[in-house]
């Protein structure tokens, strides 16, 4: 079978991440200077970029001591409300840097007193030109509609942002990411779990995708990819929210796909959720979570050997491989899902 463009771009991620880290790590002093005096981070994004922003929010709050929030762009573009954003660092994230709503919202934030950062793969784009500091990722051209390398390089940029905000974490963790992802791609494709999970999802109409904390954005992104590339109903939830009621939808026709880093305070809860799912006679599939989550699940794809704060950069990759393989199994071209374009404009 001919290799899809999406699969080729998944394989380009190690090189894209090396280029991005080489370009952005020297910008840490610029970010530190811009962020001096700020107390809160406001993330502005849509789609996959919004899922990256969830990771950025957790990094800001768990590693830098700053409150992180997700913006509602309609406050700026539809309601045209003016807020006091002094002391706020506004971070707009857009793969292309051309989505007008995101550019307008960043301009609005600046006009309301915020300092501004752009994260984009579009050098010279309107978003990059609008920001005081532009973190331009080095993903290269991405031709498949589902974001893969542009998403992971956004996560890398947000990890660099956390360093600029004073996160007390080892930079060497970031430098290990590209090689770890190269190894992870090989391990995931050789895993017997990959075809097993593909077959387990090929016969259902829906799946619940769940993670928590720093892995929550990964769960949301994986659910989005399943919806847009495989046309399945996929519900992305924190496992805390899942246990508050939606757990009732998990049954023998609706499996759960659980994502977790190999360490961290949310791993035990993810393992407990896998036990509960299987106790309800539903299937539990896993991405990451080490041997503990694998033992509690019906089948598990390997996760990255990375500490929790950077694990999401690798954790999404087995999920991307799963989505690409599942789309082809369902007879869907993963490169051009129906109804979608590379750049989405919203009002």
Automatic annotation (TrEMBL):
PANTHER family per UniProt: AMINOTRANSFERASE-RELATED, GLUCOSAMINE--FRUCTOSE-6-PHOSPHATE AMINOTRANSFERASE, ISOMERIZING
Record's keyword terms, sorted: Aminotransferase, Repeat, Transferase
EC main group: transferase
Location of the SIS domain: 30-171, 197-332
A Pfam family it matches: SIS
Protein's UniProt name: Glutamine--fructose-6-phosphate aminotransferase [isomerizing]
GO molecular function: carbohydrate derivative binding; glutamine-fructose-6-phosphate transaminase (isomerizing) activity
GO biological process, alphabetically ordered: carbohydrate derivative metabolic process
The keyword Repeat belongs to this UniProt entry's keyword annotation: yes
Highest taxon listed in the record's lineage: Bacteria
This enzyme's EC code(s): 2.6.1.16
InterPro entries: GlmS/AgaS_SIS (IPR035466), GlmS/FrlB_SIS (IPR035490), SIS_dom (IPR001347), SIS_dom_sf (IPR046348)
């Amino acid at each position: 079978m001919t290799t899809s463009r999406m699969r080729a771009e998944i394989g380009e991620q190690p090189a894209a991440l090396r280029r991005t880290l080489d370009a952005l790590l020297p910008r840490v002093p610029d970010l530190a200077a811009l962020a001096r005096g700020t107390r809160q981070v406001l993330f502005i994004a849509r789609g996959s970029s919004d899922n990256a922003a969830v990771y950025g929010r957790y990094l800001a709050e768990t590693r830098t001591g700053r409150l992180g929030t997700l913006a509602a762009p309609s406050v700026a573009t539809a309601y045209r409300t003016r807020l006091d954003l002094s002391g706020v660092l506004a971070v707009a994230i857009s793969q292309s840097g051309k989505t007008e709503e995101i550019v307008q919202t960043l301009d609005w934030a600046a006009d309301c007193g915020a300092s501004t950062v752009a994260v984009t793969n579009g050098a010279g784009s309107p978003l990059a030109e609008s920001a005081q500091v532009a973190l331009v990722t080095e993903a290269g051209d991405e031709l498949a509609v589902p974001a893969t390398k542009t998403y992971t390089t956004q996560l890398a940029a947000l990890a660099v942002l956390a360093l600029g905000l004073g996160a007390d974490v080892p930079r060497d963790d970031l430098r290990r990411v590209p090689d770890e992802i190269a190894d992870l791609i090989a391990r995931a494709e050789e895993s017997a779990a990959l075809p097993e999970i593909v077959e387990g999802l090929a016969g259902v109409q829906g799946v619940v995708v769940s993670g928590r904390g720093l892995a929550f954005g990964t769960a949301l992104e994986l659910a989005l990819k399943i919806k847009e590339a495989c046309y399945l109903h996929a519900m992305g939830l924190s496992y805390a929210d899942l246990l508050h009621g939606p757990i009732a939808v998990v049954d023998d026709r609706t499996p759960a796909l659980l994502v977790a880093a190999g360490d961290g305070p949310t791993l035990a809860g993810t393992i407990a959720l896998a036990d509960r799912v299987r106790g309800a006679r539903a299937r539990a599939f896993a991405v990451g979570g080490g041997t503990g989550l694998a033992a509690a699940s019906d089948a598990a794809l390997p996760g990255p050997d990375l500490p929790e704060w950077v694990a999401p950069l690798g954790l999404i990759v087995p999920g991307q491989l799963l989505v690409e393989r599942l789309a082809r199994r369902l007879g869907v071209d993963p490169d051009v899902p129906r109804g979608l374009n590379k750049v989405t404009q919203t009002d």
